[in-house]
Amino acid sequence: MKSGRAWLLGAGLALAFAAISYQIVFKYKNIESPLPSAPQTAIFDLVLTDVDGKAQSIRQWRGRILVLNYWATWCFPCREEMPGFSRLHDKHKANGIQFVGISIDEGSKIIEFQKETPVSYPLLIGDMKTMTNSAELGNSRQALPFTAVFDRNGQLVMSKLGRWNEADLEPKLLELISR
User: Fold this and answer.
1) pTM for the full model?
2) Is there a catalytic annotation at residue 78?
3) Choosing from 48, 66, 75, 97, which is the catalytic residue?
């Protein structure tokens, strides 16, 4: 009897996760988030650790066009967009573009992910507080993936909830490069 209950509980959790994933992937997949009205300079005070355990300050990338991507290893649309982000990072880093991934995950899972899907930009380890703070950047739904783009002056210029297609993001980055 217990195994039947455990199976039902597992099936219920799987169904709930599938419903949430559906909402994120399909309902919100192309939502450019409205920009918050307050200045977003606090993001540059954020210090997170990388997968090697070293503290990394977001401030080190101030003066560059900064693309912050909130993601997790279990998030399918997050995993889908990362190879495109890596290509854009490699292609435009000499022009002052810096991608940074902030994972809401454990370091060991991020390391495993990187073995399967190499990423050319830094991956930092966040937590649920970090995710909650993404609301200040326009992620009012607290969902993944979420990407925020800052200009060279540190001003939030665009953000998007859901998978950001490489072909849609690149022209926006090129516009920022030309400013």
Assistant:
1) 0.80
2) yes
3) 75
